[in-house]
Each structure stands twice: as structure tokens, then as C-alpha cells.
Amino acid sequence: MAAHHCQFRIYYEDTDAGGIVYHARYLGFAERARAEALRSLGLGVGEMAEQDGIGFVVRQLGIRYHAPLRLDELMDVETVLLQMSGARLNLRQVITNLSRAGQKSVVIEVELACLKLAGMSPLRLPASYREKLSGLTVPEERSA
Length: 144
Fold this sequence. Notes:
Elements: E1 4-9, H1 25-40, H2 45-52, E2 54-65, E3 74-85, E4 88-97, E5 103-116, E6 121-122, H3 127-133
Antiparallel strand pairs: 1-3, 2-5, 3-4, 4-5, 5-6
């Protein structure tokens, strides 16, 4: 595997009165795409919590807006693992506008922390998780 891709259409509820996606909605799209990326690796969010008592929380996030998405457009969210260390994951999510020939709309870099949910305390990524998560890594020349 390499980068994970997830597509969404822009609906009225995602936009402001001018038909442009409201800035905070991009975070929701990214969250859903991250959950789907984890699920594709066999790490469903609900299953991790129920079976292992483990979850991921956003520790830090940066977002850069390039071009707006509009009502009825189709987007792709590409999720790539940049780095994995101890109890943390660093991901890049690039949202592109498929209705406009793949125009880059937003780039999000997010750091996730792995937690033991019972006490909400940091937890080193289990080896089985590390192995699965490495499936989101892309060759160096594509990750830029």
C-alpha cells in the first residue's frame, strides 16, 4: 500500500452563503479520511477502542489553504504517513479538487498521539500497529 485516497462531494451543508466550503469543514473531511485510512489498514477506530483500549488524538495541526472548493465539486483527500515515533504519528493530508483537474485546495499536517483510553495517557505504538501503519508511507520522492 502507499498513500490512502478518500473522495467526498461538497454538499450545501459544507458551504457558506456564497457556495464556498467553510474553512473549518476541511478539518472534518480530513478526520473522516484519516479514519478511513486507518480502517483500510485494519485499524478501525471503534475496534481499536473496544478491543485494545487504544485511540489517537490530534496533538498538533497545521493547515494551509490554496484554493477554495465549491458546492457540488468532488474532492480527494490523500493521507500519507510522514513519520512515526514512540507514541506519535505525523501525517500529511492533501485535499485536491477533482472537478478542477486535481487543483490543490488544502494541505494539512497533523500530529496524532496514541493514548490508552482508560487513563487518557500516552502509549507507545504497539508493534502490530507500527507494522500496519507503515503501509501509509510513500517513497521519499512522492512525499513532498
